[in-house]
Amino acid sequence: MPVLISDSPASEVRAASPGGTARSHPQGTGKMLRLISREIILRSMRGAASWLENSVDSASGQGVGHRIALYAESGEVTWLYPHGNTGEVITAWRVLGKALDRPEYFSSAIRYADGLIEDREQGIYRGSFRSAHGLMWYWTDIGSYNSLYAMRCIGPLLQLHKVTGDRRFLETPLMMGATFLQRQTASGLVDASWSPARGWAEGGTRVGCRFLYCLATFASLFGATGDRVYRDAYEKSVGALLKMQKADGSFYQHYEVATAEPSPSDSSTKFLFFSYLLNALAEAYAVFEEERLLEAACRLGDFLVRSFYHRAALPYCRGEKLLPTDRAEAETGIFDAANGLLWLSSETGEFSYLDVATKLWLAAWSNQPEGTGIQGLDGAILGGNSPFHSATVEGVTGDRPHLFHDPARASKCTLWGMVNHIFASHWLLQRMECP
Questions:
Q1: CATH number of the domain that 425 lies in?
Q2: What DSSP character marks residue 408?
Q3: What percent of the chain has pLDDT over 90?
Q4: Which of 95, 197, 218, 240 could form a disulfide with 260 if both were Cys (CB 3.0 to 4.6 A apart)?
């Protein structure tokens, strides 16, 4: 993602300032920011690198890396979902290599990208059904392919092509982009979930608001190729963005893919998805620098700030009608939006974004163990395990064991949370290095 790692000198990176146009807020005092030092950030990034290494090593021969680690009271670590096909890992390794002066991490980024490309069945699909080429194996390893993970992979692959010249890192995104162009609906959203058993019906009628990532995908493809077809697809995606955003700046979790209207069967608000949206807006803004993108991002950022100041935390999901897969984690606190808020702070100088992002980053860091001696635990950003759920969750299939209550389980760590913590750490380092 262009916005998440820069090859420019730190002095060229815009940093937030308490002055300028920033709004004041009684809770936005900046106390927490003064608690963070460069050494603390680097310690946290070293821990995150260790966790990433373990997630990859533990999946050796099974996939590119595990997506979730579960931690028992006994200290036992259970790794889940070895096909952690998350393109952001490519950028995370590059960020870590640059921040920690570990050039070998660039090789880790290449290996992760190679693993996605070379596994044509459980990585980036290139099987017998050609119209689904470029989709990615779904994270629960249930035999379906999903566009969201592929859309988020295109930016990191294009960046690798830019720095290596390796044609595979251009040709693969172009293959993926061709599928998305074919599957883009009149609403601007991309309906592209497929499985050998159900065909395109795998997508259904509901699409998560995170599928708006297509606007970043098409923006990055246009930035790399200059092909007008991607610019036109991007414009349609922006239309969906502006239609789907609620008056308070947030988004419903689900929309009808053909119309971009809210789905009548689900009115929940999934805060976890807002980190996807902020990352997408940042990636698209790096190409076009359009005010309408920044304004949409600020409306969402303002919603997150108001929500945080109300609860002193951000919840995983809220709403009257929660999906079965969300009920077990709905009250879990999340930290991943820190990355997007730091980007917003750097672009606008708005202090409240910096204040909330700093508090989220510190909350994540405070839940990052060090010196336990348990491989796979040190460096993890831990999330809680609710004691209030039964051993089974009605409506949840057995392929998602991380959702079921286990009285012996102490906590868990997710790949998505880790990469966003790495990116937020990168932003904080850049801010400290700016004059």
A1: 1.50.10.10
A2: T
A3: 74
A4: 240
* Residue ranges in 11-121 assigned as alpha helix (H): 38-57, 88-100, 104-118
Phi, psi of 387 (to 5 degrees): -85, 5
Domain that holds residue 94: 10-433
Identify the pLDDT of residue 187: 96
Q: Are 117 and 172 in contact (CB under 8 A)?
A: yes
Q: pLDDT digits over 300-358, tens only?
A: 999 999 999 999 999 999 987 788 888 878 888 999 999 999 999 999 999 999 999 99
pLDDT (tens digit, 9 = 90+) per residue, 243-268? Answer: 999 999 999 999 999 999 998 877 79
Whether 203 contacts 135, CB under 8 Å? no
Q: Which residues contact 388 (CB under 8 A, 6 or more apart)?
A: 405
Residue 323, Cβ neighbours under 10 Å: how many? 18
Structurally, the chain folds into a number of domains equal to: 1
Do the beta carbons of residue 15 and residue 433 sit within 8 Å? no
Beta strands in 217-285 (DSSP E): 254-256
- Residue 279 placed within a domain: yes
Q: CA angle, 213 as apex, 120 and 17 as ends, to 5°?
A: 130
E strand or H helix at 257, and its extent? none
pTM: 0.92
Confidence bin at 391 (pLDDT 50/70/90): low
Reference 145, options 131, 132, 157; nearest CA is: 132
* Tokens at 162, concatenated: 């830019």
